[in-house]
Amino acid sequence: MIIGYARTSTVEQIAGFEAQLEELKVAGCEKLFSEQVSSVSNRTQLENALDFVREGDVFVVTKLDRLARSITDLMKIIAKLDSKLVGLRILNLGMDTETPTGKLMLTVLGAVAQFEREMMLERQREGVIKAKSAGKYKGRKPIDKERHKKVLELASEGITKANIARQLSIGEATIYRILAAEKVLTGKKQGKAAN
Fold first, then answer.
1. How many helices (H) and strands (E) does the chain have?
2. What are the residue ranges spanned by the domains of the chain?
3. Per-residue pLDDT for 195 more than 60?
4. What per-residue confidence (pLDDT) applies to 12?
5. Are 94 and 121 in contact (CB under 8 A)?
6. Long-range contacts, stretch 147-154, CB < 8 angstroms, 24+ apart
7. ∠ Cα 60 50 96 (to 5°)
8. Are 5 and 66 in contact (CB under 8 A)?
9. 74 near 65, Cβ under 8 Å?
10. How far apart are alpha carbons 170 and 147 in whole angstroms?
């Protein structure tokens, strides 16, 4: 059986999502798994697809970046498919892991992609250091005390982090940082009280 997997990072990418699904159908996929989530999120449909495949099946994606977020992630997916005796086909590369050459090329491409990402992150770090030394980089703007207090109040009322972020016009990550910092502080205070 030929099983296809399609993914886009956001629900706004409708055209790209539909194009992937169409390409997978043209490639002969008999069953499709699809989702619209970031590669760093929990990809439940990918896990469902990897659980579904059986010996002799072929797992198909349109592009490598739709499947894996890093070479480590890619190698885990390939190992899981290999353990089930399932081939992997990447359409835009014309690559098929059922051949030794295809398997080698996929590993090399994955390593190059990861190297490229690490180089980009290194350049970003260098840019931040340079900007800091020139006095142009201030870092994350601290949240004011009133909003900090309001986050704690709303959280104690049981309001979700997403709703708190929306109400106060701040990022959800900021909410998590405030609550984590408060938990650490509260934990330390409770620990001293217990002694």
1. 7, 5
2. 2-100, 140-180
3. no
4. 63
5. no
6. 148/178, 151/175, 151/178, 151/179, 152/178, 152/179, 152/182
7. 30
8. yes
9. no
10. 9
Distances in Å between the Cα of 15 and the Cα atoms of 8, 10, 11, 62 are 10, 11, 10, 14
162 vs 32: CA distance, rounded Å: 31
What digits encode the pLDDT tens for the residues 132-190?
888 887 776 777 788 888 999 998 998 888 888 888 888 888 888 888 877 756 554 44
Nearest to 9 by CA among 24, 20, 25, 22: 20
Helix, strand, or coil (residue 152): helix
Answer yes or no: is pLDDT of 24 > 90: yes
Beta bridge partners of 8: 36
- The first and second tokens of residue 145, run together, are 């005390």
d(CA 131, CA 147): 29
Please say if 156 is a catalytic residue: no
Taking the C-alpha atoms of residue 193 and residue 187, their distance in angstroms, rounded to an integer, is: 10
Report pLDDT digits (tens) over 86-130.
999 999 988 888 888 887 887 787 777 778 778 888 988 898 888
Q: Fold for 2-100, please state it.
A: Rossmann fold (3.40.50)
Q: Are 60 and 5 in contact (CB under 8 A)?
A: yes
Q: In what order do the strands lie in the sheet with 95-96?
A: 31-36, 2-8, 58-61, 87-90, 95-96
**Topology given in CATH for the domain delimited by 140-180:** Arc Repressor Mutant, subunit A (1.10.10)
Catalytic residue among 9, 34, 133, 156: 9
